[in-house]
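Box 3.1. Reading complex inputs
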Amino acid sequence: MSMNNQGRPTSAGETGTAAAHPTFTGNKALQIEEALIFEIGRPEVSGVDIPAPKKVKSRIGKLARNEAIGLPGLTEPEVMRHYVRLSQKNYGIDTGLFPLGSCTMKHNARLNEKMARLPGFGDVHPLQPASTVQGALKLIDTLAHYLKELTGMPAVAMSPKAGAHGELCGMMAIKAALEAKGEGHRKIVLVPESAHGTNPATAALIGFEVKSVPAQADGTVHVSDVKAALGPDVAAIMLTNPNTCGIFEKEIVEIAAAIHKAGAYFYCDGANFNAIVGKARPGDLGVDAMHINLHKTFSTPHGGGGPGSGPVVLSERLAAFVPYPFIRVGKGYALVEEGGKLDKGEQPFGRMSAFHGQMGMFVRALAYMLSHGADGMRLASEDAVLNANYIRASLADLMSLPFGNQPCMHEALFDDDWLKNTGVSTLDFAKAMIDEGYHPMTMYFPLVVHGAMLIEPTESESKASLDLFIAALRDLAFAAKRGDVDRFKGAPYHAPRRRLDETRAARTPILRWTPPEPFKEAAE
Amino acid sequence: MRYLPLTPQDRTDMLAKIGVAAVDDLFANVPKSKLLKGPVNLPHSKGELEVERILGAMAAENISASEVPFFVGAGAYKHHVPASVDHLIQRSEFLTSYTPYQPEIAQGTLQYLFEFQTQVALLTGMEVANASMYDGSTGAAEAVLMAHRVTKRRKAILAGNLHPHYRDTIETLSRMASDELVSLTPNPDDAGADLKAVAAAIDAETSCIVIQTPDVFGNLHDLTAIAKKAQDAGALLIAVCTEVVSLGAVTPPGAMGADIVVAEGQSIGVGLSFGGPYVGLFATKQKYVRQMPGRLCGETVDAEGRRGFVLTLSTREQHIRREKATSNICTNSGLMCLAFTIHMTLLGESGLRRLAAVNHANACDLADRLADLDGVAVLNKSFFNEFAIRVPGDAAKVVEKMAKNGVLAGVPAARLWPKDKALKDVILVANTEVNTDDDRAAFVAALGASI
């Protein structure tokens, strides 16, 4: 059958703006408004067919749950539609450039997803007999080997569940090492003001006192400032390298030496490891402990805020102080848990969580490493750094760089000095980027830079993609400078939602759905 | 390299634009002697097929839960997850998005978090829930810290029948934070005595008591009386649940007076995955919300008055409060929340109740069959889908023998309490909807042949 074009107009007719044509539903073509499951579901409906249970004598007794729970159900077609529509309100790496500084939003290979779902990894229980999970233990041990080789460190704790959990593990190892030496009195942890909030929060969580170290005008921490802060009560320094300003700490070796000389430990925040994989090894720089965000550097998906995985590599000085469980290789792979036989010198400090860590992330990270290889990982870091510098060099004439036009690592940091007197803020600029089809960069972080804009393109972007991004940012920058304030103040105009009222959300928190009043009465 | 879009020509052109001769000029801050001259000592890049071969071989060395009659539980449970769940969580816009810090382009994530929080609150019988913790055990440790903040006391009492991994996670953090902890002895034979011991330990310094139900041996507990006892002494009751399917059949801790409920949410939507990633559920009373750890999603409106969602009350969190934050948590378990909430939405109340009923009935059936076996004793008076048995001899050896006969029978208590001789003959046995009559027959036969 051929199409009948009789009477069908073949060119666009009368035009007008989208705003002039509101829709009955509030939908905008492919952008469809979606109610909450509580508004569309029914308690008696289910999208899962389960055969009737056997008739048995209940062992629940008077603890049976008899009251209505209030959980709505949807059938499978309704579920598909609900979550597909929700997904269409989200921006992901697969949607477009996601230059979120310090977050390393690189491509998430689907091979890695496929591997993590192999039944031999995805469908094994953590407490099966070790004889039935030899391949799973081998995978963890192989990944551990890769992490040690890439960092030049002799040991790694695999169980931490995310970056901040890794920090906690590293700082616990340091505390355990100090106590083992009878130096539990060391209570001070030095943290630069530019650090991620997790650093001071972690240190404080286990009773350390945080003392800040300044960064100098070039954006780095100077060994002289560290030396001035060191003393017999200092336990450790927590330093991010490359730092949150996107700069490699050029005095890091001297800083490490000074810390060690003072009897303290060097914790390195490894959030920015993607800049130096295969280029420099933290172990060679004097680091004692560093967490690695597998969900950043080794591409396990961020998943809308997790799950992460934060293994911690440890130097010779801390290698004895890993948490339970850990793997021992002998005749096969054994998992050493609490009460297990320890080798000489091993002094586990306890346990970070139930079971053995984020296996699903381990598989994905190892798939990434095997795919890239030593050569590809090195090249990936070089490309990540190259891409960031290309952006820096292409915007430096319009946007201001807080530490001068020097090379950066894998992220380029701008401040808001160039927006002075334009009436446009960093926030406005970020929201206007949304209208241009980009996820905004990290904004207002690090705290040491006014109106910070931290741009991390990662190695996953092509030159064409970067060129378009740069052109869009240049156009926005010109618009800001020529006073086109409306383009920014009301932005985003084209996203599924305009700016949201965060003050209202915090003042009277509505943290769950509650039935509307008439519904309540009907139910009673 | 299939993942790197830059061509050699691109790299040359870009270096020219930057104004440097070589990429290593961009690494000028790295001390020269520390800059690696070439790749590290690891294998070179591989195609998809080669990677699949290597990882496929490792995966093939493991026995997966679906291959054999499978009864292993103790904090992680084998359940059937509908196909649509795994499809939906792999939607690019969910899988490859970040924490929803830019709410205008993250309403998808935020709305499902809001729905998740509501489901968790309903399920646990509590007023509010957060947007997840890493897992149940870390959630439990955070709950203890939260109780310390609320009560301004620093002593926690852990029931003996709390999962030992949870106990150790709490114990490690408490010791590092110099907080006081009383950890009671496990009691599989008289679960009621465990609660009495907790009650007896409460004093004026006690910040919280931590009780698991179903407990690690599977016993169900009525927490009503002990909740009141704790609260009368100015302490909080933290209830732990490691099998959330039970909440489709058993009175939730919220209805029994719990102040904080932490749970492992893995059973709904999340695979076993050798222990992670899982999803920690964390719920409490409205009055404690500002002391909660973790992210919270809240409802608001946008500039045009339309309903929308944002992360809120972030002044509790590390990126704002730094060393004064309620927790150091940042990345949580977003995608696992999604898996949980999709599966829960598919189930609905009727499906969840049915699923729970099937789990319970299957477990009862196995318990009845085991009662007929000479030398085997089921220890529980009450249970949901998991119970403890005593067998003649060394339970770990029995489990190992049964594994050789193709049945993964459960967790020998010695795996969790290696030093407790009184538990040497105990096995924790879980039975869910995945177990068939044939599986249970195989269990009984293999156990009979192994003792």
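In summary: Chain A touches chain B through 213 residues (CB under 8 Å).
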